[in-house]
Amino acid sequence: MPEPTPAQLESLRVTDEPAARALRQDTHLLGLFLSPASPSDVAARAGMPANLVHHHARRLAGLGLLFEQRREAGRVYYQLRARTFRVASDLLPPQDPDGNGRGDLRDLTGGFLAAYERCWAFMRDGEDGVCSFGNDEHPAPPLEDATDPIPVPFPAHLDRLTLRLTPERYARLARDLSDVLTRAYAEGHSETGEPCTLAVLTFTDPSADPRTLSRNLNSFLGLNPT
């Protein structure tokens, strides 16, 4: 009697450091195995050599992040071991280069700077950045767009606001910002386009002057549409 086909788990807790590190470092590749797929098929989608994807798939299976779902016509089909992985918090502390917080910020910083540099190449001579200051007595003037639209389809955009908040108002505003991403997640992918990252970053900053209300817009989006 043949053995039953292994099933993907809904959730799996990762308690092994190498698996936790691979989960962070190989997130993109792992996501291509959400449904059963052969490394050769994944290689074409990922733009990687097939032998390299075969190597990584075997390694990730050895770490328990993928499993061999079936063999068919001489091909091995791998699948994510679980749809959700929960990583023990003590495996990758913030002090670790790939740790919680530090790894996220490194990845976001690198991705944003690369996008910013691509946009900067299209900047026109004479365009200025804008930085405004204000306080309760003299509020900062509303920020105007610092640039005209540039001929790139996905302009880098950074909008930062520093102001004094109560814990309750801070939590409400942070959740309001995340709600935008929740709605985008529910809408899913556009039919066409490119992979884009939208991020929400909020934190308390004891070094900031509590009397200062400051906003920094560093964007290539250009004028708001009317």
E-strand count: 7
The backbone outline, from C-alpha atoms, is elongated
**Element-level helix/strand string:** EHHHHEEEHEEHE
Total helical elements: 6
Mean pLDDT: 84
Overall helicity: 25-40%
- Fraction in beta strands: 15-25%
Question: What does this entry look like structurally?
Answer:
With 226 residues, the chain is α+β, with helices and mostly antiparallel strands. Helix content is 33%, strand content 19%. The chain contains six helices and seven strands. It has helices spanning 17-25, 27-31, 39-46, 50-62, 102-120, 167-187; strands at 9-14, 66-72, 75-80, 82-87, 131-135, 157-162, 212-219. The strands form three sheets. It has a three-stranded antiparallel sheet, with no helix packed on it. The chain has a two-stranded parallel ribbon with strand order 1-4. Strands 2-3 form a two-stranded antiparallel sheet. Strand 2 (66-72) and strand 3 (75-80) form a beta hairpin. Helix 3 (39-46) crosses helix 4 (50-62). The longest helix has 21 residues, at 167-187. The chain is elongated and about 75 Å long.
Task: Give the SSE layout.
Blueprint lengths: L8 E6 L2 H9 L1 H5 L7 H8 L3 H13 L3 E7 L2 E6 L1 E6 L14 H19 L10 E5 L21 E6 L4 H21 L24 E8 L7
Parallel strand pairs: 1-4
Antiparallel strand pairs: 2-3, 5-7, 6-7
Key terms for this structure?
single chain, 226 residues, alpha+beta, three-stranded antiparallel sheet, two-stranded parallel sheet, 6 helices, 19% strand
